[in-house]
Write a structure and sequence with these properties.
Blueprint lengths: L12 H21 L9 H16 L6 H4 L13 H13 L3 H27 L1 H12 L2 H4 L8 H20 L6 H16 L8 H22 L3 H26 L1 H5 L1 H13 L6 E4 L2 E4 L7 H8 L3 H21 L4 H20 L14 H21 L3 H25 L13 H5 L12 H11 L10 E4 L3 H4 L7 E3 L6 E5 L12 E8 L2 E8 L4
Parallel strand pairs: 3-4, 3-5
Antiparallel strand pairs: 1-2, 5-7, 6-7
Amino acid sequence: MDLRMQHPRRNSIAPALLLLLFCLLAIGTVFLQADVYGLTIDEPLQDAYGRSLLKWYTTFGHDQSFITGYDQALHMPEHGASFEVLVALVQHFTHEQWHTRAVVNGLAGVAGIIGMALCGLEIGGWWIALLAAISLWLYPRFFGAIFNNSKDLPFASVTCFVLWAVLLLVRSWESRKRLSLCLLVGFLIGLAASIRINAVVWYPILAVLLAGWWLLHGKKLLKERRVLPVLGSHIIAAVLLGGTSFLAMILLWPYIALDPVHNLVRAFQVMSQYPWNGTVPFAGQIYPASQLPRTFVPTWLAISSPPAMLFFAAVGCFFPCLWLLRRRKLEGRTAALLLAFGAPLAALVLMRPTLYDSIRQFLFLVPPLLLLAMLGIKCLYDVLIARAYKLAAGVLILLVLLSHALVGKEMLELHPYEYIYFNQLVGGVAGANGKYEMDYWATCTKPAIKWLGEHYAEYMPDREVIFIASPQWGQIRPFVPGNFRYRQKTPDFYLASTRFNWGRQYPDYSVIHTITIQGYDACVIKVRPTK
């Protein structure tokens, strides 16, 4: 039985049209839901950073406020720049800030499902392409991040396109398209790195793929005395790919443009061991963010992914291993997919970088994980069809659709907090409460301030000006009523996320409202005691 991925030769009109319809529905969802989600803790800073970066471009490098205008401890220049510049550019033309930001971010999520569909097309044809796109859209922690995570979400989306381009390159490695595909892969890696430096992991992945190609073909080339010509062409391809990615980083990341080699190395060093001294709850224990156990990343992937996708991903890993044991070789695209997931996962486990905020900093592992699940579904389906178990194959498809429907139901119940989804391995949100990071973005502050804006007069009926304190003032400021003023000393009201025990401040104040998510108290509002 041949388990290798075959490139689809005939397009299927039905799944292609369904995929187009799905993408249009996704775009519509972005515009309809953009104002529903709250701002994250990082968004005010990221938005200002994007405007500073845009000034660097519009002044032809003279304005360097993206470096000088921020506390050095934040390491803003070492953070990727390209997506923040895009957001700032669109805001410049719309003359509007937060709705524009949410829409652009949401469209980046739609781009991700298009990239997933392209990868799915390479793996198993149009039906797998459709299923891959749906699977990413219905991955709760991906969907929950599309409106307000301008770092990890766009990076995950671009990762889909990088993987697609790599799959194309592997399939066409011995064709005339190789050099043009090297340009495409190089540009996409550079684009991804200009969002998050993690994208440099693609260099060793490509090196391993190339080494594997030489292991398979080296003896034949030696017999044909073609080693030097082929080696020369591969060196040219590698230089072309690496040079294109480096040039893309220089053009899309002002910090790299100022001192390409030194600043690229520094960005990697800073971001791989980010100097954040906070603590992280994990499995009921509290750890320093820089000293997390090696099980941190695998555990988070296990408890925050839909269980059916975990099962099918395991199947998707099993079949290639079986093929490797039987035939002593592995089809290139299968190897690329396994490496796209396994290599960065292994790096995170072994290097133990500073991590926090649950899965968001390695959200880019989700697309290859789901694509392994798509491969598992395809392999199971093909096995059942090959053995004439058509009824069982039909049941398999129904089970996949049912699993997506159940996840969709859970997402609706969590809305708009899909990014704190937990599966039943830990008992859902209620079971994870108190053991793992929950509402790390504190987006609950938006409905909290809206509630206070509607009810403050019940507690301060004779006051025209209301004083409020909040550690999330930057997040709630766009939504506060016009008569609200910030004051930390003896405010009338205190509004806070419960993260980092913020909700325990002002202990003599009385709690008048709580934003609760499936039993988890995410935000509290307190009122000053009456004299």
